[in-house]
Each structure stands twice: as structure tokens, then as C-alpha cells.
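Researcher: Going back to the complex we discussed earlier. I've cleaned up the inputs and rechecked each line, so this should be the final set. Can you rerun the prediction on the complete assembly and write out the structure?
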Amino acid sequence: MAEIPKARDFFEASSAAVGDHELRRKLENASARHLDHFAQVKAEFPPYDDERDAAHRIKTDAIAHLDELLIELTSKLEERGCKVFFAEDAAQAREYIVALAKAKGARNVVKGKSMTTEEIDLNDALAKAGIDAVETDLGEYIVQLRGERPSHIITPAIHLSKEDIGQLFTEKFGIEYTAEPEKLTAEARSRLRAIFLAADFGITGVNFAIAETGTLIVVENEGNGRLSSTMPETFVAVMGIEKVIPRLEDLSHFLEILARTATGQKLTTYTSFITGPRREGELDGPAEMHVVILDNGRSSMLADPVLREALNCIRCGACLNVCPIYRRIGGHAYGSVYPGPIGSIVSPNLFGSAAGYLPFASTLCGACKDICPVKIDIPRILLHLRWKESTGKHPLKWPRAIERARRGARRFAKTARYPRTVRTLGKLAAMVLKPFAHNGYLRRMPGPFGNWTKYRNFPRPRPHKRPEPDRPSS
Amino acid sequence: MAEQHKIIASVKDALGTGARSNSHEAAATAAVPVAQSAQRAELASTFARELEEVGGKFLGILTPAEVTNRIVSLAGEIGARTVALGQGVASDMDAIGEALERADFTIVRTLPVADTERAAMRARVADAELGIADADFAIASTGTLAVVSNANRPSSLTLLPPASLVIVQIDRVMANLAAVLAEMGPAGVAANRLTLITGPSRTADIEKRIVLGVHGPKSLHVIVVWPQND
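Model: Rerun complete. Updated structure for the full complex:
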């Protein structure tokens, strides 16, 4: 398992990322483009909010009947000729897939984009067994070539500029340098096409699993999911236990909102409905199909009535794009394959207490809740996790700078109990600091307050004015 | 097997044994009624607009005779030499294939294959410059094609060649996705692999800039067929 860094590492990584102006430019650029697309398609689709409500309702209901749905799904999958394996944790899932690949003598393993296989660190496990798995989603392919992890769950290479990618291709393939996205994509297409045609073992994730039919839904834009699930003789789909929905008729609500929030499209380019291996005489599809259904901490989230709501997540990535923290520090600083607001909720549960500091990496501004297509109350769950963390048996160890800030905050909290004292101190500060202010802001402050002005200006305190009573505006 | 029971047991345990608030029925939603013939032309034009919006090319609403001619001219326009096609849902693919052969194009017909023939057949489809398939349905609101694949109509036809042409009958253009899924029903969807196709293969992985033709076709052409006797 990729080590989840300790709080100190997160503190250092995020401080470094905040100071990385180039990274911030790329993130702002990509997020802004993304939100533009989203606003446009949302405006053109009046039922959007109704669809969100429907999706929220169906998913909440599905999670409340998860045991029954998993039993129904399993029996339908088996009826259709799939082999189903339930994995309690990441290790069991890895072992099953690695053993299967070995038994099949797999030589060319192709992977469609899948966050769940990132979660279980499948590529490393395959590599240790001497099997190279090629990521075929363009963004994943790029980060794999760099030996990195994705920094966004929808746009894995969001932290790279086209020039970075041009350089990478020149280094790895010895081709002439170009930063044109069209040419870079064409290069990747021809290299990956050859790999696809020779592939004997394919792996993808699953977006939705329909219990009543045993159909797996894979949503994508490039064709990597279609190729990974049709070219190889053996196909493995990996899904979390929460991906199951009851019926076919539920699906359209999710597909209508997922594409809009994830990529600003009305529908993703390709949506594959896969029900079992290929039929007699068919050219495409696997001879053998396996479905790995992964728990890995999800049932413990289910047991917590507040946390349970997070299992509604359909991994659209929208909360990352609007999050002021994510937009400053990017995905890598979080140290988890699931970054951003939803990542801060699921990571401590999937990867253990080492990620317990993540729920604190939020301003609780609520932008994530507003955009969430399945209406998850992310700030509420983050507060719940903070409460759990600070009342738990093993309190987090914070880096010294954070401890100092917390002590300061506690001291302020004590003082704030006496409004008159606060007002007097405020008046005093306003008087003393007035001559040092420029345009209403302080650029430098003495002592420990200097830590604030090192990164940003501080608004000059002004004398307290009693608020005027509300008047109806004329 | 042991893991399955263990996980389902822990799920059960986590949910508690008390009464469960919602029933499956409570979350159910009304199905969208299927579009009737009166709205055909309107649905087809909405479909055309949405298709073009996602980068597809709409070749028009044509009669079966016009379809054959248009396909022959399209194959020439894109500089194809080899064209791959399967059996139709409603279109007469044999007639189309013969017309293409008369115009000197090489035809790859995707018939049911034995295991030993699979790799060779795939290579032939991949080498074709144009793949032709008949869609089972089209979705007006999103510009989407719903294509079911089987032994005579492999998924490769709309995936491997760099250009893709899909034909759909006008009475199979539905208002929205929910209508198509309702029309096919659970049994219809589960019978074979179904693929929804909305525009050419695309990516936005490099600086969120849209590039077409990543792994699938770079161009997607669509013809809506208006039956002559209508």
C-alpha cells in the first residue's frame, strides 16, 4: 500500500504546494475551464436539481438495502457466467487478481481508468509478480510514464502543462518535441493501439452495477474502457461494495448528472453495459469475466450513521474543482489516491488513522456540498470526523507550528468570553496599528503575528461600530 | 465464498436489524413515455443538433436508396480503401456492401468467428478506414447512439476504425435516455453488450483541452433513415 503520510508530511507538502505558483496557475486554469463547462450544461438542463434529488434518494435507499442488493447482484452476475470474488481488504483483492493473472499466463495487461485499482495499489502488486500493467486512459498513461500517482480523480494529469507532457514524450519515446495536445494524443493512440491488439488481460473499474440484471456500467470518453473490456480474453472488473444500484430504470438519473458534474458533458462519450462474458461466435468481449467486489473499510463507514452518507459518492470529482484548499495545493499533497473534500472523508476510513488529519484540511465553506450531484453534506461529515478524531483514544500528533496556532486559538477563545475586553483590546489595536497600515492592510506584523503576514496581508482593525438597525430599502 | 458471507454479514450488521425506512418502491420514478411518430421529425432534428454539438457529423435524413449512395460518397470523401460492416438492425447492409464493392472499396464483413479466427478478424477491422454499424436507438436530448453488439455486429465496428458511420431508423430516435432504457427493458439490456455512443472518442486530459480520436474513432458520421413508404 502506498504509505499515507503523517500530518507533518501533509503540512510540509501543502506548504510547498501553496508556494508553487506554477502549480496554482495550472490548477486555477483547469478548474475555471471545468466550472465554465459545468455552468453551461447545467443551465441548459432545467431538471438538473430534480435529477440530483432522485439520485440522492435512490442511492440512500440502495445503501440502506446494501446487503440484499449485493446478494441479488452476485446471483445475477453468476447467472450470466461471471466469477465473483468478494475481497475484505486491498490485500485480498490484489492477491486474487495477481494469482489470476499468473494462472492465465498474462503477458500484456491493459487497464482502463479505475480509482478503485489505485486504492488497492494493484499496479505495484502486479509489477512485483513480474507483470507490467499499462494504464490506457491518456491522463493515467502520462502519470504512469512519470512514475507518479494521479492528482485528480477525473483528470489525473491536471498538475502538468502541455509543455511538461511534451518533454516527457521526448524523453521516453525519443520523438521530436511538441506541446500540441493533438500530436501528443496521436502519439499515445498509436502506441496504445498496438498494446490493446496484443492484450490478453484487461482490468477496469465500475461506475454502477445493476442488481436486477447483473449489468456493470463503465463510463468513459476515450475508448480505453471499451477496449480494455473487449480485447483481452480475460477481463476483471473491480468495484467497491457501494456501487450497486437496484434497477435499470434508476440508471438514467445517475448518467444524466455524472457527466454534467464530472466533465461538463451531457453524457459521456462511451457508456458500456457489460452483462457477462462474450456470447458464442462473438468477435469482442472476454472469454472469462471476473468481478472483484471490495469492502476495504466501506462496511465500517456504513456502520456510522453520519459517515454512511459518504457511500453515496459517485466519484465525479466536482468537489475537488470547487474546493479552495484543493485549488491551492493540488491532489498530491493530500497523500491519498482520493484527494479533496470527499477524499478527506473516505481516506481515513480506507487507509486508517494515518490519514486522520485530512478532515482538518478544510475551510468548511460548503462549496462541495452545493455542487455534489448526490447531495452529500460533506462539511457535516468532516465535522463529525474531526469530533471523532479529537475524542478518540489516540489523539493526532500535530506539527509544532500547528500546535502553536491551536494554542493561540485556545487563548483567543478564552478572551472572547469577555466581550468588553475584546472591544477594549480592539480599540487599542486599532489606535496602535493605524499608522502602520497601507490602504487598510498591514503588510508586516511583529512577533508570532508575522507568520500571518509572511503569506498574506492583514486587514487593519477598525474601532467597533454598533450595527445600525435594519431599515427596509426604498 | 467465505469472504462473501463475511462481508454481507458485516454490511447487515452495520445496517442494523430494525425496520428500514424507505422501501425500494419509494425511490422509484415514473418512466418517461416513449415518443410517438408525430414527433419524429422534431426528435430527429434535436438529435442532429446535439450530435453536432459533441463533434459528430449529421449526414441528413435520407431514404434507403439515398443512404447507399451517401455511404459510397462518404467512403470516398474520407479516403477509405477498406470498409468494415456487420449485419443491420433494420438497414439492408448487404445492399450497402455490394454498392461499396461496385465502387471498388474492399469490404470486411464481420460474421460470427471461431476462436482461432478472432485475432485475424480484429486486425482486419482495425485496418479498415471506415466502420459501419446500425444503431438500435438514438437519443435526441443528448445526441447519443445506442448500439447493441452481437456475433453479427461486433462492438469493434464503432471502436477500431478511425472513422465511424452509424445508421439509425427515424422511428428509433427517442426523446431521452430513460425512454431508451424503458423501451429495451432489463431483459433487452442484459441480453447482449450495449454501448451508448455520444460523439467521437475524446479526451480533455491535457490542460482540459478537447482532443478527438484518442482510442476510438476521430470522426463519427450519422444518417437517419426515413422509410420510403412513410
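Model: Worth noting: The mean pLDDT of chain B is 90.
Researcher: Good, that matches what I expected from the previous run.
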